[in-house]
Amino acid sequence: MEQKNYRTSQLITVYYRKKSKEYDTYGYKYAKFVGLHHLGVRILAFCCDISILLLPIFIWLLAMLLVIANIMPIGVLEIVQMVTFVLLLISVVLFPFIISKITDGNTFGRAIFDLKIVAKDKRRISVKKAAMREILGYGICVLVMLVVSSVSNVLVKFGLNIDMSSKVFTVALFAVIGYIVLNILCILLLPRHVAIIDLLMGTRLVILNSKTVPSKETSQVKEKKQRYVSNIDLHMHSSFSEDGSYNVEEIFQMAKSRGMKIISITDHNSTKANVIADKMSGLYDIAYIPGIEIDCTYEGHDMHVLGYFITYTSELYSHIENENLVQERKASFERVRLFEEFSGMKLDTDALLSKNRRQIITGEMIAEQLLNDPQYRSHELLKPYRDGGERSDMPYVNFYWDFFASGKPCHAAVKYPKLEDIIEVIKLTDGVPVIAHPYQTFREDISFVHKLIDKGIEGIEVFSSYHSEKEMAELLKIAKERKVFVTAGSDFHGKTKPGLEIGETNCPPAGLRLVKNFLECH
Predict the structure, then answer these.
(1) How far apart are CA 149 and CA 168, in angstroms?
(2) Which residues contact 472 (CB under 8 A, 6 or more apart)?
(3) What is the pLDDT of residue 10?
(4) For residues 419 and 458, what is the distance between their CA atoms, to the nearest angstrom?
(5) Where are the alpha helices (DSSP H) in 103-239?
(6) Which of 153, 220, 351, 507 is the most exposed place for a label (fewest CB within 10 A)?
(7) 206: enclosing H helix or E strand
(8) Does the model's pTM come out above 0.70?
(9) Positive or negative CA dihedral for 260, 246, 20, 400?
(10) Residues 197-213: pLDDT tens digits?
């Protein structure tokens, strides 16, 4: 296969467009308007951007050094001045458009420090509007200031005939200085600490923070939000899961940046990630435990069983994945049909199918399409999942739980394998079967876990981003009574569950010893 080479500019553009898509999808919900305590970050971002804008001035500075060193005659400075002025003019007018296009409506400086210029409702503004803000906001002022004070003032010292006493130059200089002072006062005193140009254009500056959970107390995740972050996470999903956002190496990159020591990627009914993860483990110096999360059923309950330390190359897992694909593809069209009948809204099936290689339509994907469809912006059914709604903390997965989960109005039945068969497969491949986030499945009667242990389950995912302290205590009690292993996992997915991050397993230091005991026994 022919290898395609990409320019660095193309890769940078793709990166920023991906970041903008994530912001449009859910990031704007967690962005915060800047405060006075962000002033230092704003100054650093401004200095970074202004240094790019002033690149042409370095030509003039170099010429000055050459003149001072008697390497270049002073007469050349007049030509250099004209060239510098033209380049500065190009820089002020064109650079903002070029940079805004590359960063999809941002600047390099703000992107580095997680800042972004947005509309009043925190929505992303157009590339054109973002560029015009930079030009009108300080680009022209910088050009005038440089030409009037810096370039002209120094050239006068070398005897060039420039009338610095001219009223035009004086008025322009004081106008720029006045604008800068007024701008500083606005940033310091106004409620949102906005610049003058933001008042005129209706824009605002926010600081990005995708890890911040909304303050809505009615949120299911808010009640059980993570209190502990550990360096062991045994439950996360890559893009080999139909609802996973990131590929395997991206997960390792994020895990490394968060200080993880041991991880396991447990994709839904698929072991494909393990092949890549084993190679990434040495590269990123993170211990890796082979894993999988399999859908199964027992006494009418659909549930997830985690398998750890499995021989992931076994053909048994390929069979499970293929059977699951057949079932899920049938259910995909049934989900669409049931939802359209229930809601009266129309879905673009072709667009949904094109979103993943597995050709499966999930409830989360349906939610994403509808919440980003302008024609349904005011639909009553979707309001709880929009910004500020009681289900807006994790809109996509909440939408799935509310409409497509077992017992819900648009649930499409899938014939999953029996629990006993899955336990047998995991054990046949030298793995350990563990029940995943029990309180998500058996909230009404957690004692059901005892039946699962009787059937051969050897571990409980006690520490989970979904579980409250009370729930974890109850599960820990069962684990100790039945002498089964204890595990911890975040169930990280990416955009479908934005409130969950790698390492946020809710596992306290004392609990971490129990998880390590599980790992050391295998």
Answers:
(1) 13
(2) 462, 463, 464, 506, 511
(3) 57
(4) 13
(5) 108-112, 127-134, 140-145, 152-157, 167-189, 196-201, 220-223
(6) 351
(7) strand 203-207
(8) no
(9) negative
(10) 888 888 888 887 544 33
What single-letter amino acid sits at 180? I
In angstroms, the CA 371 to CA 396 distance is: 9
- The DSSP secondary structure of 19-75, one letter per residue, reads HHHHIIIIIHHH-EE--GGGHHHHHHHHHHHHHHHTTTHHHHHHHHHHHHTTSS-TT
| Contact indicator for 144, 172 with CB cutoff of 8 Å | yes
For residue 217 the two structure tokens come to: 């107390």
CA distance 508 to 311: 30
Is 472 within 8 Å of 515 (Cβ atoms)?
Answer: no
- N-term to C-term CA, the chain: 40
Q: Which of 104-108, 362-366, 442-446, 512-516 has the highest mean pLDDT?
A: 512-516
Note whether 295 and 324 are within 8 A (CB).
Answer: yes
pLDDT in tens, 395-449: 888 898 889 987 788 988 888 999 999 999 999 999 999 999 998 888 778 888 9
Three-class secondary structure of residue 262 per DSSP: strand
> Are residues 443 and 470 in contact, defined by beta-carbon separation less than 8 angstroms?
no
Angle value at C-alpha 149, between 144 and 155, nearest 5 degrees: 115
Q: What is the Cα–Cα distance from 255 to 419, expressed in whole angstroms?
A: 31
301-308 and 291-298 strand pairing: antiparallel
How big is the CA angle at 259 (ends 522 and 477), to the nearest 5 degrees? 50
- Which residues face 203 on adjacent strands? 119
Q: Which residues of 106-138 are buried (b: 16+ CB within 10 A; e: fewer)?
A: bbbbbbebebbbbeeebebbebebbbbbbbebb
Asked if the model's pLDDT at residue 143 lies above 70, the reply is no
User: Which phi and psi (to 5°) does residue 63 adopt?
Assistant: -60, -40
DSSP string, 275-331: HHHHHHHHHHT-EE--EEEEEEEETTEEEEEEEES--TT-HHHHHHHHHHHHHHHHH
DSSP state of 393: S
Domains in the chain with CATH codes: 8-207 (no CATH), 220-520 (3.20.20.140)
- Please give the pLDDT value at position 16: 62
- Contact criterion met (CB below 8 Å) for 252 and 502: no
369-378 long-range CB contacts below 8 Å, 24 or more apart?
370/345, 371/395, 371/396, 371/399, 372/24, 372/25, 376/345
Two tokens, residue 240: 């080999």
* Token representation of residue 449: 């876990």
pLDDT of residue 2: 42
Name the CA dihedral angle for 161, 157, 79, 162, rounded to a multiple of 10 degrees: -30
- Would you say 487 and 234 are in contact if contact means Cβ atoms under 8 Å apart? yes
Looking at residue 282, its pLDDT comes to 94
Amino acid at 470: K
